[in-house]
Amino acid sequence: MEGKRDRTSAPDPEPEPAREPVPDPDPYLDNRRLLFATAYRMLGSVADAEDVLQDAWLNWNAADRSGVRNPRAYLVRTVTNLSLTRLTSARATREQYVGPWLPEPLLTSPDVSEETELADSVSTAMLVILETLTPVERAVFVLREVFGYSHAEIAGILDRPEPTVRQIAHRARNHVRSRRPRYDTDPDRRARITAQFIEACAGGDLNAVMELLAPDVTCWSDGGGKVTAARRPLYGQDHVARWILGVLAKPQSAGITFRLADINGESGILFTLAEVPVAALTYDLAADGIKNLRLQVNPEKLKGLRPSTG
Predict the structure, then answer these.
(1) Beta strand pairing status for 266-273 and 257-263?
(2) How far is CA 59 from CA 54, 86, 282, in A?
(3) Cβ neighbours for 287, distance < 8 A, ≥ 6 positions apart
(4) pTM for this entry
(5) Does residue 265 come out as left (phi exceeding 0), alpha (psi in the -120 to 50 range) or beta?
(6) Which of 65, 117, 169, 170 is deepest in the core (most CB within 10 A)?
(7) CA pair distance 149, 36, nearest whole angstrom
(8) Which residues pair with 260 in a beta bridge?
């Protein structure tokens, strides 16, 4: 009949499926990168930083959040104070450390190297300097100079008067500046020198290695008493070059491969054996060559090597 609806040609549309409710964002997960970056710069240890984040996560999930107006600030405060506690206890342990102490290396993404200030704050050289600060000075420096917190915000995080925080910040900044000489940070030159150093070491070429080292080069190696390492710093081109090639020539070093890697925001060298990291090398680059070589060979400090943005 005319005007009658043909139900066979136009079936009613099926109802849309119910949409899953979108969960609220988790402030801990949203800020995890910042929290890890804070803890790592405070502690110089990947393992300790991860432990602090685990404790912070437990704290966050157990907390009464009804009065938390700024979750990010709450979490940064939690991580900072947990790091302070851990750093204070770690100082006593490090007094008994066998040989030179170096921070745990961290693989960083190439884009970190392009952000000069960020790369500098996570460099091995900077972490070594931060070790010479008191725990509170280190916390203030990291929060102020790296992450740009105001003195008032830091005072709230550390529960200290703002004038006191200002004094600590001034003292810490001067301390770091007096111990942080500026070296060549040109990424192209670093990459080129690192590649040449890898080739010279892999070929056992003593003269080539020496030519890449500055005359006043110093080398520190951290074995922690667990593997063979120099227990005192090595000085001079000849001494450092012969020691490095001597280690690589040992039977236990057979099969080690070298590759250029972004370590702590700079071009460095990762040494692997059967794809397992066995050493990480970073250095400062001066006009006259490589200086301040830092070789991490402590197996306990190589477990955390993994890609990260730091």
Answers:
(1) antiparallel
(2) 9, 16, 36
(3) 184
(4) 0.83
(5) left
(6) 169
(7) 16
(8) 269
Q: Where are the alpha helices (DSSP H) in 203-262?
A: 206-212, 237-249
**Which residue has 């005319």 as its token pair?**
2
Kindly report, residue by residue over 65-123, the tens digit of the pLDDT. Answer: 888 889 999 999 999 999 999 998 877 677 778 889 999 999 887 654 445 555 678 88
Which residues have CB under 8 Å from 269's CB, separation 6+?
Answer: 194, 197, 198, 258, 259, 260, 261, 263, 280, 281
SS3 at position 195 = helix
Which of the residues in the chain have pLDDT under 50?
1-5, 7, 112-114, 309
Angle in degrees, CA 147, 94, 180, rounded to 5: 45
Cα–Cα dist 280/297, whole Å: 7
- Which structure tokens are listed for 153? 């915000």
Ranges of H-type helices in 63-150: 71-94, 110-114, 116-122, 124-130, 135-141
Q: Residue 136 in contact with residue 84, Cβ under 8 Å?
A: yes
